[in-house]
Amino acid sequence: MREKQLLPVRHPQGELFLCDLGDVPLKDDSASMEHPIFALSTKPDTTPRVYEHNGNRVEITPSVVGLATIYDKDVLIFAISQIMEAKNQGLPYSREVSFNALDFLRFSNRMTNGQSYEGLRAALKRLRGTTITTDIVTGGVEQTDTFGLIEKSRIRRKLKSGEVTDWSITLSDWLFNAIEANEVLTLHPDYFRLRKPIERRVYEIVRKHCGAQKQWKVSIRLLLKKTGSQTTLKKFRQLLQPIMEADHLPDYSVQYEDETREMLIFRNRKHVTHKVISGRLMLQTETFAKAREEAPTWDVYFLEQEWRSWMNAKGMDPPNNPDKAFLGFCRSYFKKHGKA
User: Fold this and answer.
1) pTM of the predicted structure, to 2 decimals
2) What is the pLDDT of residues 63-119, one digit of tens each?
3) 10 Å Cβ neighbour count for 282?
4) Contact present, 184 and 340 (Cβ < 8 Å)
């Protein structure tokens, strides 16, 4: 059932040749995973939006061609993934990312016909035209000015043949700050196989909030707010129902907590029940920030799961100081494995 709900894998890894793109993990910035910046409709949306939650405020203003969509975000995921790969390998990188359109289409599991190339052109226009005003901090920098999702894009074409030779985008300082600070998370490869905008948006929200934890609870009203969907609560329930029934979200399943249908529970499919997982073994929020310093480029929630699995395999009792023990594990893991 799950495979039938997903798009087919259009490009096996063997077809991806530039920079071994098939092996590059999908990376997304945590700020846009948390806040509803992208439109979920594929129809042009020129309505300005304001999102406020927990003291953060985001104003999203589209251009005349419409707000950047969740599918347009694929371009940013592609760019972030390439930059993080270069960064992890110690290669030079910058805010400007040059690429071959065919590689992007294959990376994002898209068709490689003329319509897809035109779609990429339109996506670049919407990304450049969508402006953000926010006080969200990325990379320890509070940016309150107005900026585009990308600073600019460029398409180079040979005059005689008309052949496009090079595409490039320059990321905003806001997004690049997040990359520099490793404020990114790894997405499941099946993300690009999700068919519907709401599926992609729900997945990135739960990926951000649940991570490697066993489960995450959220009210359906708050989830609706976080998605940025302009639909009613009744319609939102209807949109979630096929996701629950088909159970095809990567890594996570979802169901209502009880018959009131007010609370949702997302459960991690890969979570292993360990002897040491209990209410006594809780890590402080600031510990994860310190863990990023101990093991740069690694997903700290992945490391947490590895740590718990290691303790379980050793039959260890919960440590007296779990935060100190976890940081020690991260330090040793990074020393052994190097950069992710």
Assistant:
1) 0.76
2) 999 999 999 999 999 999 999 988 888 889 999 999 999 999 999 999 999 999 999
3) 10
4) no
Question: Of 29, 1, 25, 4, which is closest to residue 13 (Cα–Cα)?
Answer: 25
> Length of the chain, please?
340
Closest CA to 208 of 31, 25, 26: 31
Site of tokens 């905003």: 172
Give the three-state DSSP class for 71: coil
Yes or no: say if 266 and 254 are a contact pair by the CB < 8 Å rule. yes
CA 26 – CA 197 distance, rounded (Å):
18
- Cα 85 from chain centroid (whole Å): 15
- CATH class belonging to 197-268: mainly alpha
**What are the structure tokens assigned to 194, written together?**
């999700």
> Domains of the chain: which residue ranges?
11-192, 197-268, 285-337
> Which residue from 234, 230, 246 is spatially nearest to 195, judged by alpha carbons?
246
Task: Dump pLDDT digits (tens) for 30-73.
Answer: 889 989 999 999 899 999 999 998 888 899 999 999 999 999 99
Residue 250: strand, helix, or coil: coil
Q: Which residues make Cβ contacts (< 8 Å) with residue 285, sequence separation at least 6?
A: none
C-alpha to C-alpha distances, 109 to 9, 192, 199, nearest whole angstrom: 7, 6, 16
List, as one string, the DSSP characters of 274-340. Answer: -TT-STT----HHHHHHHHHHSTTS-HHHHHHHHHHHHHHHTPPPPSSHHHHHHHHHHHHHHHH---
User: How many Å apart are CA 171 and CA 206, to the nearest integer?
Assistant: 25
Looking at residue 276, its pLDDT comes to 39
- Tokens 């993990």 map to which residue? 25
Nearest to 176 by CA among 84, 264, 249: 84
Residue 46 to residue 43: CA distance in whole angstroms: 10
Gap between the Cα atoms of 54 and 59, Å rounded = 15
